[in-house]
Amino acid sequence: MKVTVVGAGNVGATVANVLATKKFCSEVVLVDIKEGVPQGKAMDIMQTAHMLNFDTTVTGVTALPNDPEGYAPTAGSDVVVVTSGMPRKPGMSREDLIGVNAKIVKSVVDQALKYSPNAYFIIISNPMDAMTFLTLKDTKLPRNRILGQGGMLDSSRFRYFLAQALTKAGYPATPADVDGMVIGGHSDKTMVPLVSYATLRGIPVTQLLSKEALDDVVANTKVGGATLTKLLGTSAWIAPGAAAATMVEAIALDAKKLIPCCVYLEGEYGEKDLCIGVPCILGKNGLEKIVEIKLDGEEKAKFEESVQAARNTNAKLGDALK
Ligand SMILES: NC(=O)C1=CN([C@@H]2O[C@H](COP(=O)(O)OP(=O)(O)OC[C@H]3O[C@@H](n4cnc5c(N)ncnc54)[C@H](O)[C@@H]3O)[C@@H](O)[C@H]2O)C=CC1
Ligand SMILES: O=C([O-])CC(=O)C(=O)O
């Protein structure tokens, strides 16, 4: 399995690093417009190979947007992970990045596709739901090959906050003890943590936590990315990188894993012509199935709000969609 990771910044380098340590890739190519940075990060990762016992070859490449051959070293990639673009600063929303990142995402996807016509694309750059929609419309690829990463990360944050709340309430738990999923847009205001389905080792958390505690968990999950951005001065990268690598792994190993991903809806959940987070089965064909689950009244209303917000953001793509 050959994977290209576009953007050798915080998230991209972490994706490459986690992929190498997971040991299922033969080759990972890190691409950036910067000279030296992708090469340096690849070399740094390779210098852990002996200690971490992996055989993956990680290389770094500089490719400028106007270089028709810049992506030649990425040729034949099975999966392309797109992390190139600006991260937000404290006080910004992900949606504020749309103007600058739409141009970057469109250009790198076109360049990568030329050399890897059969690749699956995993979109990370924000605002991710809109960038996934843009990629789908721009490439005209079938929807099973275009996946946005948001739900894997948001669900992981949901589990973290649930574990903290459960521990505080007298039910000691780690995030690994908890199951929970977040659907909807990858957005501070409109993601939808599915409280009604969350469990501690099979026990509904609604039986263990007060409404107030659950409301706090939901609020913390929704602003999980903004909280880290405030603490770090730029957005997070460790869990985001691991989330993307986990999606690549599900495809590479044909794992048929149920992972919430941002995908193009064609009538599922009563919606069409947008990309948004829903439970998906990921395997060797990328998106293999969208799993439609029953949402309770409040969750359904929140999902619909999230859909509307995603449509409003897509409308701002304007000329990029042409
Ligand atoms: N979907 C998600 O869950 C998450 C999304 N993100 C998003 O991922 C993106 C990257 O974040 P970071 O890695 O923290 O930013 P970063 O600034 O550390 O890295 C971005 C890299 O992209 C490169 N780049 C810019 N234009 C390029 C082009 N045309 N071709 C190749 N490389 C190019 C830059 O030179 C830079 O090295 C941001 O848009 C951020 O908002 C970040 C975390 C989670
Ligand atoms: O918060 C951000 O801007 C980056 C991101 O999407 C996340 O960490 O969830």
TrEMBL record:
- Residues that bind substrate: R88, R94, N126, R157
Q: Which GO terms describe its molecular function?
A: L-lactate dehydrogenase (NAD+) activity; L-malate dehydrogenase (NAD+) activity
Give the reaction(s) catalysed.
(S)-lactate + NAD(+) = pyruvate + NADH + H(+); (S)-malate + NAD(+) = oxaloacetate + NADH + H(+)
Please give the SUPFAM superfamilies that the UniProt record associates with this protein: LDH C-terminal domain-like, NAD(P)-binding Rossmann-fold domains
Annotated ranges, domain Lactate/malate dehydrogenase C-terminal: 153-309
Q: Which ranges does the record mark as transmembrane?
A: none
Oxidoreductase in keyword set: yes
Alphabetized, the UniProt keywords read: NAD, Oxidoreductase, Tricarboxylic acid cycle
Q: Where does NAD(+) bind?
A: G7, A8, G9, N10, V11, G12, D32, N101, I124, S125, N126
Domain Lactate/malate dehydrogenase N-terminal stretches = 1-148
Q: What does this protein do?
A: Catalyzes the reversible oxidation of malate to oxaloacetate.
Membership in a protein family: Belongs to the LDH/MDH superfamily. LDH family. Belongs to the LDH/MDH superfamily. MDH type 3 family.
Q: What is this protein called?
A: Malate dehydrogenase
- According to its UniProt entry, this protein's organism is Mitsuokella multacida DSM 20544
